[in-house]
Design goal:
This protein is of the alpha/beta class. It is built from 14 helices and 19 strands. Helices cover 28% and strands 15% of the residues. Strands 1, 2, 4, 5, 6, 7, 8, 9, 10, 13 and 14 form an 11-stranded mixed beta sheet that branches.
Length: 528
């Protein structure tokens, strides 16, 4: 009897254990997939790398994040660079060469790509998407404005964005204003601040309208781009900071004696300390060579540099505000990506204001990625060569979307700290010289010339490796070459260097890569 009871208990226990195991296995088989991450992409305008040291919140993204030290844009003009980000392709494959539709670029050249951007792919995959700020040069905003495919919210400057104060901003929210498509006046509010508020509102609406679903938010302030049409002697600064960040002794008065430049006092900052500032250009190609910058011009550049630092304080405030808006759970599952569409120069190589060159100050820009808090901890620094054509694949990879191969590759393995074999060894930089007489409004990216005899760069193509810069200019039989290990600021041109022959072959492959019958761009980016 006792033996039978024991056997009965043992059988019952075995049944319970078996049922528990089956339930556990069933639960494992039916468990929900890991939550797809949110993505916040902050794309600023004309941010040169030396400004990063004055931005505490942005530099804070490196904590438990990934910093790319060799990130290059494919083109240093706004529109071609942004087209490369949206599509994952180099300018020679997007067909977006300049900022103006009358000159082979602008929105007119880009619009055909709107159905194949990362926004279209993310939206189709169930992400709630929002775009805020500057879009593509010459994007028109009539009363019944066009909202590109893939965007659930569309808050884009309809005019005056470069002024930071006298702008209009669309307010398309799919769930609320899809029929009316409002356009709001600025009301005198600083544009970067307004974008920060709208970013916080977007996050809140995403919780309400798409609970449990991931979101993709792109914030693209105009800062620290200059005003359009600025002239010497204007009361309004060429680079207009928020009112609060201006010096107290100027009108309108700011909140700091000398303005807000982050931690240092603004008066201690001097543009003349920038590497290669006003350096002798006798070794440079003919278009660069020019007389030294005079004292009055240096005084203006000094003011511009300090104002650019003041301008990015509002960007830093915006980043801090957006990060604070994320809930603890959202912080666990959100990537925050920060970069610029191009760099900028202020007196380096005796070039005044502009960004059209292949030198590092114009094409090598910051790229920081704050990883989800639930992921790997620790600060990572990546030396691998990355480009803006990689962002398309990166965003899709973050979202778990398999996309078609294009010119770039996903940076996600590098962001997560993995070693990647066979990574690119050369970056391609392209530039088509804009036609100064092209029809339309003035080009906001036009370089400021010191004299009619010193025009901006001619069209060129360049290769940047881990330790070299090689440039070929249209109409110039001699290349430009720098060993960037011994000459990191490109001050001593060596066009007869023995390495130019091999780099010319690399450039020849890259300049036509991805076209029908040509090698793909990833293979072309290998040195051997």
């Amino acid at each position: 009897m006792i033996g039978n009871l024991r056997r009965a208990v043992a059988v019952a226990l075995a049944v319970v254990l078996a049922m528990t195991s089956v339930a556990s296995q069933a639960g494992a088989g039916t468990a929900s997939k890991p939550k797809r991450p949110n993505i916040v992409f902050i794309l600023v305008d004309d941010l040169s790398a030396e400004l990063l040291q004055y931005m505490d919140a942005v530099r804070g993204l490196a904590k438990d994040g990934t910093t790319f030290g060799n990130y290059y844009v494919s083109n240093s003009l706004c529109c071609p660079s942004r087209a490369s980000m949206f599509t994952g392709q180099f300018p020679h494959n997007t067909g977006v060469a300049t900022n103006k539709g009358s000159d082979g670029g602008g929105y007119q050249a880009f619009r055909k790509h709107e159905g194949r951007t990362y926004a279209a792919a993310l939206d189709q995959a169930g992400y709630r998407t929002g775009y805020l700020g500057k879009y593509i040069n010459e994007y028109p905003v009539p009363a019944d404005y066009h909202v590109p495919v893939g965007w659930d919210e569309w808050h884009v400057a309809a005019g005056g964005g470069y002024s930071e104060f006298k702008y209009q901003l669309t307010r398309y929210i799919k769930e609320e204003t899809a029929q009316e498509k409002p356009i709001d006046p600025s009301g005198g509010k600083y544009l970067t601040d307004e974008l920060g508020q709208r970013a916080v509102d977007f996050i809140d609406r995403s919780r309400r309208y798409a609970p449990g679903e991931p979101f993709f938010l792109q914030i693209s302030p105009f800062s620290p781009h200059s005003r359009i049409g600025a002239e010497a002697g204007d009361k309004e600064p060429r680079f207009p900071p928020a009112r609060r960040d201006r010096p107290k002794n100027q009108f309108p008065a700011g909140e700091f004696p000398h303005g807000d430049c982050g931690r240092p006092d603004c008066t201690s900052i001097d543009v003349a300390t920038l590497p290669a500032f006003n350096e002798d250009t006798a070794d440079k190609p003919s278009w660069v060579r020019r007389e030294p910058i005079g004292a009055n011009a240096i005084k203006e550049l000094r003011k511009d540099f300090r104002d650019r630092i003041r301008m990015v304080q509002s960007v830093d405030d915006m980043v801090e505000r957006v990060l604070a808006a994320l809930s603890p759970e959202e912080q666990r599952t959100t990537y925050v990506v920060f970069t610029s569409d191009n760099g900028f120069h202020l007196g380096q190589h005796r070039l005044l204001r502009g960004k059209s060159t292949a030198y590092d100050h114009d094409v090598r820009v910051p790229l920081l990625v704050k990883r989800p808090a639930a992921g790997r901890h620790g600060d990572l620094a990546v030396d691998a060569i990355a480009q803006n054509v990689d962002l398309f694949a990166t965003f899709l990879d973050m979202a778990g979307i398999r996309g078609e191969p294009r010119d770039g590759r996903s940076l996600l393995p590098l962001i997560q700290g993995h070693k990647v074999k066979g990574w690119r060894e050369a970056a391609l930089i392209e530039h088509v010289r804009p036609d100064p007489d092209a029809a339309g409004e003035p080009d906001p990216d036009a370089d400021e010339l010191q004299a009619p005899a010193n025009p901006g760069p001619p069209s060129y193509a360049a290769v940047r490796t881990a330790g070299e810069l090689y440039v070929e200019y249209e109409g110039d039989p001699r290349p430009e070459y720098y060993d960037t290990v011994t000459d990191p600021h490109q001050e001593s041109n060596d066009p007869d260097n023995a390495r130019t022959g091999e780099l010319a072959e690399v450039l020849d492959r890259l300049a036509g890569c991805g076209r029908p019958g040509a090698v793909d761009c990833w293979s072309a980016a290998q040195l051997h």
